[in-house]
Amino acid sequence: MSKKRSNLSGLVYSTDPNFKLPEENTDDINTLPPAQQNLRIRLDAKQRAGKVVTLIQGFEGKETDLEDLGRKLKSYCGTGGSAKENEIIIQGDNRDKILVWLQKQGYSKTKKI
Fold it and tell me: In angstroms, what CA-CA distances link 8 with 11, 16, 21?
């Protein structure tokens, strides 16, 4: 099912002549500039079959900007990963490498936990 239609809850047909579909929430969150982003970098191995991943948490902004930053970090580290729910997951222990790259890109409030 399309993401656009997920809020209809299975609605197929309505006999009510005054029925209107609920409008989607179009309030877009503006992405903060890199200097104002408060990112945290930490290592995690929970529920990952013993494999470690580097988590970057605290991103505030649009989902497309989060995915773009995740794509750049994965390319820089040369590993896989994903970006969803305001966090970026990078495979392996790349905390130092990511911290240096983010600070060069202007993310000055980034900290390694």
Answer: 5, 16, 8
Query: How far is C-alpha 40 from the geometric centre of its chain's CA atoms?
Result: 13
Residue boundaries of the structural domains of the chain: 29-112
Joined together, the tokens standing for residue 67 give 């995915």
Pair of tokens at residue 101: 């790259």
Structure confidence at residue 1 (pLDDT): 47
Alpha-helical regions (H) of the chain: 63-77, 95-104
Superfamily of the domain at 29-112: SUI1-like domain (3.30.780.10)
Taken as a whole, the chain contains a residue count of: 113
Residue 6, pLDDT score: 55
The lowest-confidence range among 19-23, 55-59, 88-92, 106-110 is 19-23
Predicted TM-score of the model (pTM): 0.74
